[in-house]
Each structure stands twice: as C-alpha cells, then as structure tokens.
Design brief:
This protein is an alpha+beta fold and 186 residues long. It folds into two domains: 1-30; 37-180, Mago nashi protein, CATH 3.30.1560. Helices cover 30% and strands 26% of the residues. The protein has four helices and six strands; from the N terminus they run αββββαββαα. It has helices at residues 2-26, 95-107, 160-168, 173-180, and strands spanning 46-52, 62-68, 72-79, 84-92, 131-138, 141-149. A hairpin with a 3-residue loop joins strand 2 and strand 3 (72-79). The longest helix has 25 residues, at 2-26. It is elongated and about 85 Å long.
Length: 186
Amino acid sequence: MKYFLGFLATIGLIVLVFVLILRGFSGNKTDQKPKPLVDYATTSTQVRLTVDGPIVAEQEHQAYRITVSRSETQIETLQGYQYMPIETKTYDNNRESYANFLRALDIEGFAKGNSKSPNKDERGVCPGGNRLIMEIIDGSNRIQRYWTTTCGGGNFRGNSAKVRQLFNKQVPSTDFGKVTGRLRLS
C-alpha cells in the first residue's frame, strides 16, 4: 500500500509539472487591458514622441524627439538616420504636471495600438511624409512602441494629431519654434 501511494504521488507530480510547462509555453490567452498611463506618474517611466522626416539622403535626414518624465522634458533635434543630436534642450517638470500630461495622452489613445500587427517596421513607409513613433520607456525596458505616418498606416490606433500636439506643447512655445523651425520636415 505504501508503494502504491508513492506511485500515485509521483504520477501526480509529473502531471502537475507537465501542466505548468504547457501553461508557460502557451502564454496568457486573455488580452489584458493596458494600465492607465497616469499610473506611471510616480515612476521613472518616460513617454516619448519621435517625429522622423521624409526619406532623403543621410546628410539631409532630420527628426525631433520629445521625451517627458516626471522630473524633466527634453527636446532633441536629430540628424541622419542614426539620430545624431544637433541640439538638446531640457526643462524641469514635476509629478503633477506629468500626471496631467499622461492623463491627456491616455484620453487621446497614446497607449492604443496593435502590438501583434505585422506593421512593426516603419522604415521606408510614407517616404515623402513624416513617421511618428510613440514609446513608453522604463529604464532600458521599452514597454510600448507604436507608430503611424502622416500618410496613414502603422500600428498606432490613437489620435496621432492630438498626441503630437500634446507633446509639442510640453516644450515652451518660445523655444519649440526656435528648436524645430530649422528642420526640414513635411
């Protein structure tokens, strides 16, 4: 009887291990709703918008990137496809400002996109227009990366015009025009 109970316990453990392994490989089948962006207001997480210009020669390609965190907002103008910095300006920010900004982004659908879309690579799409890349970054971990273009397409499902406007307004208006005014974007 003692051996029979040991045999049953061993079989039970094998079945349990088998079920756990299968569950690990199959992944979670339920789509989880993304957490509200305002939940990031007290963390080191940053949100970023990159506006990448038309497809032109390496020497003429330009972009700008606005990165916002709870402690600062940074705008960078970038040269070439490897995004070499031309100019960078940084402004102080605070948790309450960041929370309001994140809530506004949430309302405009910043976290809405199709991460399973085959359209994950925006390179070369809309060659005469701009590509907009929306990211949520926590240290070296990229939580989200969606994109769209001024020609349409991409895997972003929010309101790109409103999101772009919200990011642009995070830079003082007197500086935004000075910093981006020299760029050749469409």
